[in-house]
Write a sequence for this structure.
């Protein structure tokens, strides 16, 4: 079959929103008509639905994925003097959440096949000060959970599921595996609002109480009594109402992403370097990453043909200037650093067509 030339956006949110626009408009109108902007039933209902979706007892909405990870760590009592291990090739937010608590981020390099946390490197990074481990389900690919658990022993594991809404490991949803998980509802995520937002899932009731109080200025069960110094950290009710409309579509959208990813793989396997998928997992392909010798050159070439790519993330966190004073200067993650340098994120979204994939692949091969 010949490929019909067309422009390929990196992501097309208009195509996602258009078929459900009337429902979203009605949900927004309902919030506005009731001036129900902060907390309330609409937020609680979304939290319940999201917990059910993730197959976890509880979900709590907060103002970002970063805040979710931060408050999870705070609820676990992590602070100055503690170490928290994560990976170098993640969004800086994973590391910021650790730094906000006063703890020290430590990096375990990733596996060169999966590009995800390497259990052997994790084992080498653990010290008596390690108080938590944050593997990242990067690109919507689930980490090799059982192997990480085997290495972690009693050390609690927090999932960074900010790119993995709906993904599964051995049948279990992202967000249901660890002590807790942080999700982002940033607009471009597989489940995204119309602004910033985030949430966490957990089975830990004490953590839920801690986060519900801390997202709301430390207010406890009694109005205007503040048991702790907290934050303006709630998920907006307007965002919760929009997310509640989108959530029932998430599995369909994720299945469509899997179909697009399969078509990319069929065309590119053996010719372009892509991450291996961990056995027994069902990824949700938030990002479709490849390795390129000259990433910026490739992106420019594709842009000239109206094909738009991204980079997630071109600089490893351990090399970020902002983090320099927070990490051990001897930190070295050669695999993660090199993967970051050469990464290109190809367009992927549920409404993408096979022809669009072919347009991209024809330019790559
Ligand atoms: C892996 C990862 N962790 C954390 C975050 C932080 O989420 P947010 O932008 O909602 O704070 C993101 C969002 O981009 C992410 O991709």
């Amino acid at each position: 079959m010949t490929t019909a030339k067309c422009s390929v956006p990196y992501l097309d949110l208009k195509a996602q929103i258009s078929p459900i626009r009337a429902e979203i408009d009605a949900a927004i109108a309902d919030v506005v008509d009731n001036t129900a902007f902060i907390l309330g039933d609409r937020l609680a209902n979304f939290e319940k639905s999201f917990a059910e979706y993730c197959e976890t007892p509880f979900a709590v909405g907060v103002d970002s994925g970063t805040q979710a990870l931060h408050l999870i760590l705070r609820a676990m009592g992590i602070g100055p003097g503690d170490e928290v291990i994560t990976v170098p090739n993640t969004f800086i937010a994973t590391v910021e959440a650790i730094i906000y608590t006063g703890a020290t981020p430590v990096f375990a390099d990733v596996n060169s096949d999966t590009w995800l946390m390497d259990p052997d490197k994790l084992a080498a990074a653990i010290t008596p000060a390690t108080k938590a481990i944050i593997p990242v389900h990067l690109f919507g690919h689930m980490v090799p959970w059982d192997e990480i658990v085997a290495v972690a022993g009693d050390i609690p594991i927090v999932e960074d599921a900010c790119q993995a809404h709906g993904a599964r490991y051995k049948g279990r949803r992202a967000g249901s595996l660890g002590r807790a998980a942080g999700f982002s509802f940033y607009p471009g995520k597989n489940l995204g609002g119309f602004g910033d937002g985030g949430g966490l899932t957990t089975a830990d009731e004490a953590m839920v109480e801690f986060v519900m109080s801390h997202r709301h200025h430390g207010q406890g069960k009694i109005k205007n009594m503040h048991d702790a110094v907290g934050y303006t950290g709630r998920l907006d009710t307007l965002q919760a109402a929009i997310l509640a409309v989108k959530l029932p579509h998430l599995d369909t959208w994720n299945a469509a992403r899997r179909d697009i990813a399969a078509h990319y793989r069929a065309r590119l396997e053996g010719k372009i370097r892509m991450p291996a998928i961990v056995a027994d997992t069902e990824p949700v392909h938030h990002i479709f990453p490849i390795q390129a010798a000259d990433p910026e050159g490739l992106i420019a070439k594709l842009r000239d043909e109206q094909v738009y790519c991204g980079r997630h993330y071109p600089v490893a966190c351990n090399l970020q200037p902002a983090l320099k004073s927070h990490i051990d200067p001897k930190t070295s993650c050669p695999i993660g650093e090199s993967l970051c340098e050469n990464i290109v994120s190809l367009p992927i979204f549920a409404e993408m067509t096979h022809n669009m994939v072919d347009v991209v692949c024809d330019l790559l091969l």
